Amino acid sequence: MDGIDREILGILQQDARMSYRDLGARVGLSANATADRVRRMRRDGVIRGFTVVVDPAADTAGGLVVFIDLTLRQDTTNEEFERKVVTLPGITEVVHVTGGHDYLVRARAADPSALDTLLRRLKREAGVAQSHTRIALRAAPRPL
């Protein structure tokens, strides 16, 4: 990876739907050269997919968007946890992190009762020892 690849990644993190032509114009490459770089980064695993990020305030589906810091039980492996957590309803993102917790999970729950059910299932079925939950109120506007 070079500086242009890093610049492409930064732009794609802001707008992954940008055309190769527009992306290339921003980094000083042709559309074909830009597409080749993006394909190479996908092939090499630098880009593993594209995620849709929805501002909770703009989401018409309603409900709660929550961020849950999770600490696994001693008898639970990361592989076991990851295999089980992705099957639970409402889980939208699972990230293995450093710091005081093992994972950060982003989830959606219809209401506080549904959130309580999800937290109980995380502990009972996915091997979670402790959780710390935050509810998203709104997202800060992103500059264009």
Structure in a nutshell:
With 144 residues, the chain is of the alpha+beta class. The chain contains five helices and four strands; from the N terminus they run αααβαββαβ.
Q: Which sequence of strands runs across the widest sheet? A: 2-3-1-4
Strand content: 15-25%
- Shape assignment: elongated
CATH fold annotation of the largest domain: Alpha-Beta Plaits
CATH class assignment of the largest domain: Alpha Beta
Biggest beta sheet attributes: 4 strands, antiparallel
Number of helices: 5
Mean pLDDT across residues: 88
Q: What would CATH call the architecture of the largest domain?
A: 2-Layer Sandwich
Cα-based radius of gyration, to the nearest Å: 19 Å
Low-pLDDT stretches are none
Output the CATH homologous superfamily of the largest domain.
Answer: Lrp/AsnC effector binding domain/regulation of amino acid metabolism (RAM) domain
Coarse structural class: alpha+beta
How many domains comprise the coordinates?
2
Distance between the termini: 25 Å
Summarize the amount of helix as a percent range. 25-40%
By DSSP, the count of extended strands is 4
Sketch the topology as an H/E string, one letter per element.
HHHEHEEHE
Description:
- It is a single chain.
- This protein is α+β, with helices and mostly antiparallel strands and 144 residues long.
- It has 2 domains: 3-43, Winged helix-like DNA-binding domain superfamily/Winged helix DNA-binding domain (Arc Repressor Mutant, subunit A), CATH 1.10.10; 64-135, Lrp/AsnC effector binding domain/regulation of amino acid metabolism (RAM) domain (Alpha-Beta Plaits, 2-Layer Sandwich).
- Helix content is 38%, strand content 21%.
- The chain contains 5 helices and 4 strands; from the N terminus they run αααβαββαβ.
- The chain has helices spanning 3-14, 20-27, 31-43, 78-85, 112-125, and strands at residues 64-72, 91-96, 103-109, 128-135.
- The protein has a 4-stranded antiparallel β-sheet with strand order 2-3-1-4, covered by helices on one side.
- β2 (91-96) and β3 form a beta hairpin.
- α2 (20-27) packs across α3.
- The mean pLDDT is 88.
